[in-house]
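Give me the fold.
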Amino acid sequence: MHLKVLILAPAPNNISPSQRFRFEHFIGKSSVKNIVFTQKPFFSDATWSILYEKNHFFRKATGIINGFIKRFLLLFSMYKYDFIFIHREAAPVGPPIIEWIIAKMLRKKIIYDFDDSIWIKMASESNPMVANLKCSWKVEKICRYSHIVSVGNEFLAKYAKDFCKDVRIIPTVVDTEIMHNRLKNQQETPLTIGWTGTFTNFHNLEIVIPVLNELKKKYNFRFLIIADKDPSFNNIEYVYKKWRLLTEIEDLLEMNIGIMPLKNTEVELGKCAFKAIQYMSLGIPAVVSPVGTNRQVVTDCADGFWVENETEWYNKLEKLIVNTDTRFEIGKNARSRIVFNYSVKAIENVFFDLFEKA
């Protein structure tokens, strides 16, 4: 007999990095485990496409209202499911009423999953009024309502354990067999230092921009930024590529060196080192700030480098710029580490154990 799991997530399928690498790549393997997943996004494709753009107030408001209507109607069919898997929240704004109904009235087991410090009040530049409406305090409540809380690192787990007895750390991983399945050819030119991420993390690049400008005076390389928006930096020369699903791997493979600078804040401590995981899975040496999960994922001087100040950023990047063999050896070690510790194959049983019947 199949277990039935309903997934409630913010974004449409196969769009959000958080969803793609937290749970969506496991769904294709679920038939082996006799689990049937049904995924229901809050936002439609049309609303998601303009959600982080400025303006479009009425279209966004209409999309949110439609999302709530879909969630309300879905409550009437939840009796069919054994577990309700909620990624981040059932609805992006407002108190956790839907979660309360699922747990307290419908008596369904919630598996609650998140991979960021989402209890901290934040808002994007495109939606500055949303911070209060998001009700970030609800994360504590949803943890209390949950049968199991699944998080991406120890910092998030420490928070969740105050409110839920069963908290499990499941890292954000890549599929090293189907997607992230190639090793960077370090002989390729032009030599490229790269960064990938969303516009909300551009501020972390402030750490390394002065260093890259200094290195540029001595070495010939390009700085590649792959993101959902152009950062419009005027203090550094860079190449911008808009992130696209179809070219994601090819674009990453343009990098010879991948960087992940992080400021040491509670928001950054909630990050799950995913940039480093992506770089490393493709044999691209990762140079990272040793903040939070970066310390667990990257082994300093073995499969990547830790850097804590501008001098270290300069020296470690210079070492990789001038030495092709070092880039290759570090990259090869990095891929092995991801395959054995941060891949779908390594973690899939841990994920599916969330749905064991008590």
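The radius of gyration is 21 Å.
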